[in-house]
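Consider what follows.

. . .
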Amino acid sequence: MEETCRVIVLGAASVDIKGRAQAGLRALTSNPGDVRLGVGGGARNVAENLARLGVDTTLMTVVGDDPIGQAILDYTVAAGVNIAPTLIATEAHTGAYLTLADAEGRILFALDDMDALAELVPDCIVAYEPLFYAADMIFVDANLPEATLAAVVDLSREQGIPLCADPTSAILAPRATPLLGEIDILVLNAAEAQVYCPREVGGREAAIGMARAVVQCGVGTAVVTLGAEGVAFATSDESGWIPAFPLDEVVDTTGAGAALTAGVMFGLLNNVPLDEAVRLGASAAALTLQTHETVRSDLSLDLLYEQIMVF
């Protein structure tokens, strides 16, 4: 990878609280299960994955002035991410992401508390504008305030920097609707895609059709994930499908989407064909699904290709 490959990542950083039931769940009572804490946040996860793949990555986020926030920053720095533009909010607490999964690992409910990101206003983008000039790509998640998203889009267009985005959830996806025509790469799941293009998604051809429909909304490249079924992708010139890697067991689904996004970004930054970039993303997601870690601490390019060679 060329040393000039640099990415600026903006969005959420949080503590992950992940619960998985040992058996069937009963309402209105305590259920035996496995509860784990981890470092998370959509944008932060993408940044860590990129850094572990050797990309020069800078994270711009907000954490509270509290021990959890400091622990998240320490861990992220140790993973190789530059956090220089990150804000420490004195009037807000560090974000949190809470999930409840069934015994098979399927997430039933999730709650996110990312109010601290309200501190990341457009003036913050202006203050760090020179930081973006050397970037080869920018990534944003939809946890950012709408005005801040718009400011980043404006900057990316002015400087000619490719912009990658993740709608984060079906609830937050509408924040990106006015900006679709300015997004170069959009990585989203089926529920998020349906916010922009209401249509049924089921199976390979329908998913490819959904990816094409997202491109028709103005997006340069659309990557639509369908979990265990695979990943569809499209541009104005090509489209295709990458099947999911077969796994004996899914340990934890948290962070798989961020891993896929980082893998796709890594491939495109290094000028590999789109289908290979999506395959790298699918490999990163599969590796993440096999660990309790939100981001695999042993992630590497060699590991991505090892798995591709196996399957």
The chain is about 35% helix and 25% strand. The chain has a mean pLDDT of 95. The two ends are 24 Å apart (CA to CA). The chain has one domain: 6-23+34-310.
